[in-house]
Amino acid sequence: MDSSAECNLCGNCVKACPNNSIRISPRVPTKEIWSIKKPKIEHASLAAVIMGIVFVQNITMLKIWEDILRMIASLTGTTNYTVNFTVAFVISMILPILLLLGTAKLASMLKGDKEKIKENFVRFGYAIIPLDLAGHLAHNLFHILTEGKAIWFNSAALFGTSLSGDLSLASVSSVQWIQYAIIIFGLVGSIYTVFRIGKKGSFKQLAPYYALMLFLTVANLYLFSLPMVHRV
Ligand code: SF4
Question: Which atom of ligand 1 is nearest to the CA of 12?
C-alpha cells in the first residue's frame, strides 16, 4: 500500500494483521501529495472543485449572497432557491478548474512545452489540497467557535434543563485571526507542494503555480474578512 487516499485511519488493518507487520508511519506534512507516483486527473479536478465548494460555503453566509441569488434569478427566470443555488454551485466548481487549466497552460507556454498542459494540470492540481483543507478548517472553525455552546445547551435540554444565551466560545475577531493563520498555513503547504511537485524547479518555471496559490489565498482571506452570518 503506497497511498492512504482511501484510508480513514479506522485502524482495523493494524489490529487485524496477525504478524503485526502493518504500522502507521508518520510523514512530513504534504509529503503524500508530492510523492504520488501516478497522479490522477479525477483527483486533481476534485482538488480544484473543493476550492470552489469552500468559496460557496463562505459566500452563502455573506450579505452579498442575496444579491448574487437575485442576479442568478434574473438569468434563470425563477426564484426557486434550489435551482439558483445549483447554478451558483456549478459556476463556483467550474471556475477553479478553469483557473488551474489556465495556469497549466501558461506554465507549459513559459517552458515552451505546449504538449504538457494536461500533465501539468494533473500533477499540480494536487498542490491545491493544503489550501482546500485550510479553507474547510477555517470555515468550520467559525461554526465551532461561534456556535459551540449549543452542544451543552442541547445536552442540558436532554435532561430537562433549559439553558440559553450567547452560543459563542470566542469573539468574531479572534475567530478571524485564527482563520487567517490557518489559511497562511495552507498557503505554505501549497507553495511547498508546488516546489516539490516541480522537482525544486526554478522560480520562473513554477511562478504561475505560485501565483495561483497566492490568488486562492487572497480570495479566501478576503471572504473570511467579511462579516459572516449564520444560515439558521
Ligand atoms: S482498514 Fe487500514 S487502510 Fe483501511 S481504512 Fe482502516 S486504517 Fe485505513
Answer: 1
In Å, how far are 2, 135, 219 from 131, measured between CA atoms?
A: 23, 6, 11
In the chain, pLDDT over 90 holds for what percent of residues? 62
For CA atoms 191, 197, 199, 203, the dihedral sign is negative
Give the ligand 1 atom nearest the CA of 10: 6
Q: What is the pLDDT of residues 153-173, one digit of tens each?
A: 889 888 888 888 888 888 889
| 27 CA → ligand 1 middle, Å | 17
Which residue range forms the structural domain that includes residue 128? Answer: 39-225
Q: In this structure, is residue 172 part of a structural domain?
A: yes
Q: Is 25 in the pocket of ligand 1 (CB under 6 A)?
A: no
6 CA closest ligand 1 atom index: 5
Given a contact cutoff of 8 angstroms between Cβ atoms, the answer to whether 126 and 34 are in contact is: yes
Rounded Cα distance, 123 and 194, in Å? 9
The three cell numbers of residue 200 are 525544486
Does residue 3 have its Cβ closer than 6 Å to ligand 1? no
**The pLDDT of residue 112 is above 80:** no
Which atom of ligand 1 has the smallest separation from the CA of 9?
7
> Is 187 a member of any domain?
yes
Residue given cell 522537482 in the structure block:
199
Q: CA separation (Å) from 108 to 18, 102, 116, 130, 225?
A: 49, 10, 6, 23, 34
**From the CA of 34, how far away is ligand 1's center (Å)?**
21
For ligand 1, atom 8, name the residue with the nearest CA.
7
SS3 128: helix
Domains: count for the chain: 1
